[in-house]
Amino acid sequence: MFTKILIANRGEIACRVAATARRLGIKTVAVYSEADANAKHVAVCDEAVLIGPAAAKESYLRGDKIIAAAKATGAQAIHPGYGFLSENAEFADACAEAGLVFIGPPASAMRAMGSKSAAKQLMEKANVPLVPGYHGEQQDADFLNGEADRIGYPVLLKASAGGGGKGMRVVESSTQFKDALASCKREAISSFGDDKVLAEKYLQRPRHIEIQVFADTLGNCIYLFERDCSVQRRHQKVLEEAPAPGMPAERRAAMGEAAVAAARAVGYVGAGTVEFIANQDGSFYFMEMNTRLQVEHPVTEMITGTDLVEWQLRVAAGEPLPKQQHQLAIHGHAIEARIYAENPEKGFLPSIGTLRHLGTPAAVSFELGDVRIDSGVREGDAISPFYDPMIAKLIVHGADRKQALVRMAQALEQYHVVGLNTNIAFLKRLIEGQAFAGADLDTGLIERNHDTLFPAAQPAPATALALAAAALLGSENSGAADPWGQTSGWRMNQSYARHLAFSDEHASYDSYVSYRREGWLFSASNEAPQALSVTARDGSAYSIQLGGQSARGTVLRDGDVFHVFSNGAHYQLTWSDPMAHAGETEAEGGRLTAPMPGKVVAVLASKGQEVRKGEALVIMEAMKMEHTIAAPHDGVVDDILYGVGDQVADGAPLLAFKTA
Ligand code: MV4
Question: Is 292 a catalytic residue?
Answer without folding.
Answer: yes
